[in-house]
Amino acid sequence: MEPARDPRVQASSGRPGCGRFAPSPTSALHLGNLRTALAAWLLARRSGRGFVVRIEDLDQARVAAAGDIAGRQLADLEALGLDWDGPVLRQSRRLEIYAEMIDRLPCYPCFCTRREIAAASRAPDGNPASGDGGWLPYPGTCRGLSDAERAARARERPAALRLRAPISRRAVRDLARGVQSGRVDDVVLRRNDGTPAYNLAVVVDDALQGVDQVVRARDLWPSAPRQAMIAGMLALPVPGYAHTGLVTGPGGRRLAKSGGDAGLAELAAAGIGVDRVRRLLCRSLGLPEIDRLEELLTEDPRIDAALRPPAPSEGNASSRGVTPLEAGPLTGPIGWWSDAEIPISPLDLRPSER
Ligand code: GLU
Description:
There is one protein chain. The chain is an alpha/beta fold. The protein has one domain (about 20-354): 3-Layer(aba) Sandwich (Rossmann fold), CATH 3.40.50.620. About 30% of the residues lie in helices and about 15% in strands. The strands form 4 sheets. It has a 5-stranded parallel sheet. Strand 6 (about 170-175) and strand 7 form a beta hairpin. Bound molecules: glutamic acid. Glutamic acid binds near residues 22, 23 and 202.
């Protein structure tokens, strides 16, 4: 039987949904995060959607270690010129909602350590049995434990809670990649310290906030099938996805989350003001280099064209017509879907350029 739709899900009939930006306050927003935020805001606003910001602060230990920088992240978004609708939602204040949703799902306790999972996930050739995008699907070790085995293991360590996944693959749609099908597994719903897991919280919040367009970086594309599976099992709507490319620093160097790449403040200290950052981000997205973000909201077919990704290739579709999930970079023209090198970093500026 189909589960009943949650009455708190924002009714979508006749009302546009919304887009969102959902940073974790564990490091300042670097240029990649800011580029994704700008793309998310623009795709939402230009399609008549609302736009919400959510602080994903469930991992309290990491949040505290970073010095609780959510306020700085919001200030950076504002300095760039982004605006959002309604109050900023903080996941740490919504624990009862996640607990209630977990109660609705079939699950089982899991006592495995990371090391045990890695060892059990090895294929016969000794290589990790990788899921799409390189994550390790859970091999199901604790799925069939007897009550006695569970009781014995519970004396050794606290249990995480895993979803009893009814399927092993799930198709999802991305605006630039088309429909692709990725592996799903018995995903963790609650960590063994009691914290609701990211994949559960993100699904619940997107649905209850009326988010129907999820724009985020392509490293999260392999999570989309698992998230769509959880949404389906909770009878929550599955949003459309639009995964942006990743940003690299000068010379194609990977951006560090901390250690100097981070933040408008570091860039400003190196003499790179927010106006220049905004123009660089726009250029990296294939957009006109404007001074105020509102200029991107005017009627202008060139901006619409710049935001439209090339049609996904039908490349290696399987016999059932669904392409296996591919999280790598997309080639082709510059846009929100493409990777970009943004050649500025306070780390790399020579003293004469500072
Ligand atoms: N909070 C996540 C992050 O900062 C993003 C989650 C999402 O966009 O789904 O990496």
